[in-house]
Specification:
alpha/beta, 9 helices, 7 strands, globular
């Protein structure tokens, strides 16, 4: 029987990240559950272990170079060389552009873009050395179409999509597949931080007429992580209730 693949899921203490960690564990991965909150990270890891899965919880800020290194080192020590990275950590903040502060903008890009860079940089050398590995980046449909009062968020998610394509061109020939998932609005604590007016207006725009569930996004990630997605390179899958049609 093959050893479970070591996986890191950032921002996995709730919402989409939690669903991804749970799905990957159910699929047989050994998961490092990262979250900014130590309590949330360990709670999710403990629940996975309670269901017979393999998981370690660890707090850490992916925008910190030191924390990113510790997250990676802990995953390797606990579960072996990392074969799958899911860059999911993210934050939400809603404000009209003219009221955005430099701190708002910098923090948004620090978590989404710098965090993605730091975590990918940590895992990539071993993946390239082994000639195999998978990176899945969680973007957003707002990185494709923009969102009212979400300029900084939309810009950060667009950057993730661009980074996904560029890195895929660099490393796919060496055995590492890099793809993205760009969910539409999903029923998560993050989306609930947005105003009720925003949520109602967005729901009315969706051809499907409803927000998605975290498990529906996790299914897309599980597919991209699997051998069934061997032909997917630099792609952005869109579980988005029809908000973006490509």
């Amino acid at each position: 029987m093959m050893e479970p693949v070591s996986a890191i899921v950032t921002g996995a203490g709730s919402g989409i990240g939690r669903a991804i960690a749970e799905r990957l564990a159910a699929d047989g991965y050994a998961v490092l559950v990262n979250d900014l909150s130590p309590g949330r990270a360990e709670t999710v890891a403990a629940e996975i272990r309670g269901k017979g899965g393999i998981a370690t919880g660890l707090a850490g800020d992916v925008s910190s170079e030191a924390d990113a290194a510790v997250i990676h080192a802990t995953a390797v020590a606990a579960h072996g060389t990392v074969g799958l990275l899911v860059n999911n950590a993210g934050i939400a903040h809603q404000a009209p552009f003219e009221t955005l502060t430099v701190a708002d903008f910098d923090r948004m890009f620090a978590v989404h873009v710098r965090g993605n860079f730091l975590m990918t940089r940590a895992v990539l050398p071993a993946m390239l050395s082994a000639g195999r590995g998978v990176v899945v980046n969680i973007a957003s449909q707002l990185g494709q179409i923009g969102g009212v009062e979400l300029v900084h968020y939309s810009g950060a998610k667009a950057a993730i999509i661009g980074m996904t394509k560029a890195l895929a061109r660099e490393v796919s020939s060496r055995g590492v597949r890099v793809n993205a998932v760009a969910p539409g609005p999903i029923n998560t604590p993050l989306v609930m931080e947005l105003s009720e007016d925003w949520r109602n207006a967005k729901r009315a725009e969706l051809p499907l007429g409803r927000f998605g569930e975290p498990e529906e996004v996790a299914a897309a990630v599980a597919f991209l992580a699997s051998d069934a997605a061997s032909l997917f390179v630099g792609q952005t899958l869109g579980p988005n209730s029809g908000d973006v049609m490509l």
